[in-house]
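Suppose you are handed a protein chain with no further information: no name, no annotation, nothing but its sequence. What can you learn? This example shows the usual starting point.
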Amino acid sequence: MRILEINECELPEGWERKRLGELVVLNYGKGLPAQVRKEGRIPVYGSNGIVGWHNQPLIRFPTIIVGRKGTVGAIHYIAEPCYPIDTTYYITIKNGIKAEIKFLYYLLKSINLAEMDTSTAIPGLNRNDIYLLDVPIPSFEIQKKIVVKLDAFFEHYNEVKKQHEMEKSKVNKIMQAAIGKMIPNPKGELLEGWRIRNFVDCLSKNTYSLSKIKIPTSQYLKNGRFPIIDQGQDFIAGYCNDETNVLQYNSPIIIFGDHTKILKYVDFPFCVGADGVRILIPNKEIIPKFFYYNLLLVAKSLDERGYSRNYRYLVEKQLTVPPFRIQHKIVAKLDAIYGELIHALQELERKNHAIELLPKMVLRKAFNGELIS
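A reasonable first move is to predict its three-dimensional structure. Written in structure tokens, the prediction is:
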């Protein structure tokens, strides 16, 4: 059984190592289909966070919700009454154990529970494996002091992240405006030679079955031979070494995130990650890069529907398509503009990468006893 790296370090006086199963119980959430929920203010939690609302809570005390199925190992601290559904565990402290629930939350955040996924076809987390984890535990008073320190750190961290996202949003708006000036709206006046085409009529007849080559999130590698592209924010989500998982196609491909609406232009061999990935290949009348730029505008017009599927709404859209030579000119101009903007985004991503490393470092210090000395 895998244990925390921090357990390899000597702990301060007064700390001890315990099996997590000595401290807590991971209770199964309860099924609550959308059709039986009643309007209310109680958040309903799935493995990836809030999935709806109800008028009655399942639990009325602060707890930790752990993703059991779906987004395996996701951790959520909930201070108010809530309703965890059956894709989750919710944590209670055992009778007779004096522990700070939020300390345990931060402790679990320092462990990558997703790596403990032992299932094959459907991701899943076995609570008996979690019970076997050896964890460092200080006195109740020290636990409370650590929580105060970590609360302050994450408040500042989240503010920095918010500012970073605002900067990214500004750059993306500039990019959208540049595209909007060169590609007219289907509802507006068209220039000579431009045509309005239904989205589905712009697609190639070639289709791909991804069911056998999609890679579950739990199998992503940090380094490897082939990049994994999924529907997430990061352009490359991870890596894979199995050549049989590589999508075989000779021309550029556009990825559409069915849940996220994120678009990616890919012109190199790659592997397809997780669920929600749609492969879009334009027909021979449309240059792939022009199709990508055009879709950036179209996707922006899709309504926000949370984590629901969006492809069914994308297929109802229309695109404006000019002659081939005009497509080439537009792509050349946008590539020139995008070159500068993408450089700005890459610089923001570099800063973001440095920011993302901070929580792991701070949590490690906290559970080595270095945060409180």
